[in-house]
Amino acid sequence: MIYGQVTDANGRSIENVLVDVWQSNDSGFYDVQDDNQPEKNLRGIFKTDTRGQFWFKTIKPAPYPVPTDGPVGEILRVMGRHPMRPSHIHFMITGAGYEQLITHLFVKDDPYLNSDAVFGIKDSLIVDFIPNYSNEKANALGFRVPFYEITYNFKLKRKIS
Known about the structure:
globular
């Protein structure tokens, strides 16, 4: 489960914000890379409520390699670097009157956090997937025990006109 809130720079909730989310599956493939996944798998668009909150069910993503068959692969080989991206979930957050935020949240303790092939990691974007062992909550959500939960607050900047 991902629980999120969108606020302004002063911590005030922002409602009716669109939260567009996409991620890889537990094998490290996006839907467009894997014929066994249905179209739009592990993608969704959500809208924040009056408290600026949203939530959705998902799985814990896996790390994956960037393509290495072109110039990027050649550069990585010359630099002696691996092509791996750490596990993450992408977010594109859009609210009227605010700058669009495109970011991702990374899984704490992923083995590639300190060597991301695209250098996209900040400490503030690393989140702990906290295991939940509640049979009652798992049954209500249709999950197996344990399942993971994340809570994160996204802050938007007002557009300057």
